[in-house]
Design a protein that fits this description.
Helix content: 25-40%
CATH class of the largest domain: Alpha Beta
Low-confidence stretches: 571-577
Number of helices: 19
CATH topology of the largest domain: Beta-lactamase
Mean pLDDT: 87
Number of strands: 21
Oligomer: single chain
Length: about 575
Amino acid sequence: MFGQRGRMNRRLWTLAAIFALGGAALTARIAYVQLMHADHYRAVANNEHFGQQEVRAARGAILDRNGYPLATTVDAFDVFINRADWQSLDDARKAAATIGPLIGQKPDDLVNEVRKENKGIYLAYAGLDFAKGSTVHNTDAPGLRMVQTTKRFYPEGDLASTLLGFVGRDHSGLTGVEHDFERELGGIPGTIYFERDSIGNKLSLGAERIGQEPKAGGDIKLTIDRYIQRLVEGELEMQIAKTGALGGSIIVMAPKTGALLAVASNPGFKLSQLDLNHPDQALFRDRAVTDVYEPGSVFKTLTASMAIDLGLVTPESTYDDTGAAYIGPSTIRNWDYSVNGITSVTQILQRSLNTGAVWMSGLIGPDAFYRYMRNFGIGEATHVGLGGEPDGLVRTNTDPAWTDVDLATNAFGQGIAATPLQVITAISSIANGGKLMRPYVVQEMETPEGARAFSPVVVRQVMSQQTAATVTDMMNQVVEGNPGHLAAIKGYHVAGKTGTTTGATLADGAVHDGNVASFIGFAPVADPKMIVLVKLDFKEDRLGGQVSAPVFADLAPSILAYLGVKPDGPQLVATGP
């Protein structure tokens, strides 16, 4: 009996020891959890009990050079629907009848979209106007969730769409200025924490707290002028419709600073009709900055500048134009197959003679020719600060595949590829006393490090001031020395040059059996305030002097008057070369 009782006591002591050890282990675990890792497990509990939501920062505005907003941010709502609350078809139809009309969707379509899945949150509408959103917010609709956010608003409508670009659903810039200056415009998002139930849904009466306040993005002031931009876009659209052009680009620049006053490309897209799923994504790029073409005869002004700057010719120097230039086995003829006999350098530009450009390039020689070309910025991106800008294509005499024919054709703007922005930048040096300016499109901006202003940057002195003045006078004779020239404008002396390239690289980046017709001009000659490049792309042969020069003549008077430039002379067209 005593033995049995002893065995029972031993069992009890064993159980007591086990419980004691278990209690000690449990106590140690509690101490471990609550004392040593309290912060960790408190955070885990909070994560279970509280949800986290990002609060977008207000995006900075994009302004024109006078401070008028081109793109700005306004309050809005994102409309969400909790699918679980729409499992009842009657509840879903009742809610959709209220929500659908307010967000521009048919109730039945909305029901079908939401009920494709039975769980999760459905984004019914992103960026609903604040006034409409407030109306939706106050409706008694099952599953409705409203999140206050912001969206982009364009006070000037579709103005400068390809230049400004657009933002995606996450409010980050995808193209244009919106993308290229995302760091400055985007700001820093904030966070809020909210109580949620066991399946993650937000409690309607639960607590909310702010984790981090969002920091608004900075504003960017462009050099673009909204009036000039609208004028240019309207003219380009009208001329494309009038002439049947495939597309085109117009750039307006202040030649003494490099500031871009207007940049227009067509075809493009409209911000008011933005379709991110459009099959032709090329519509979203700014062709004046990203697409290359053969500049053609406008380049003869640069070839003449080289020869004059080297002291090889003067405007009065002559050569005997036989109508053809023979370079090895190749024959180069004038664009109109003309034979002009004794011809001056000024007349080479006036008549746009290919043979004259070839003659000058032979005097210049390949080493000097390509050195000047590099100095003009041909074959190198301008570093304007916009994305997608290429270097262009130039084959120099250091390339094993280069031949003398390359030098000859390059002299009149063929066999090379440059963007419209590179071409207008190079020729602006003639209007600016021989100084090549870096083009720029941002005037001021607010950055995370503070405000920043941009000033004109001289890249280099390409030619002497005297050479620039001489070539300017020759370009003036191109317009005013040819009676009836379609670029001439009343009351202002104009300097300019046409360009026509057959079988050229057109807007889609492929070579077609068509041509590029262009004109570049600046005014007033004595003190240039603006330079304009007009480029139109065609399937059929069209001349720059016929279709692009008149565009300059239509735009220039309005731009000069707007800039406050007074007429500089009563004479419209000179009497002779």
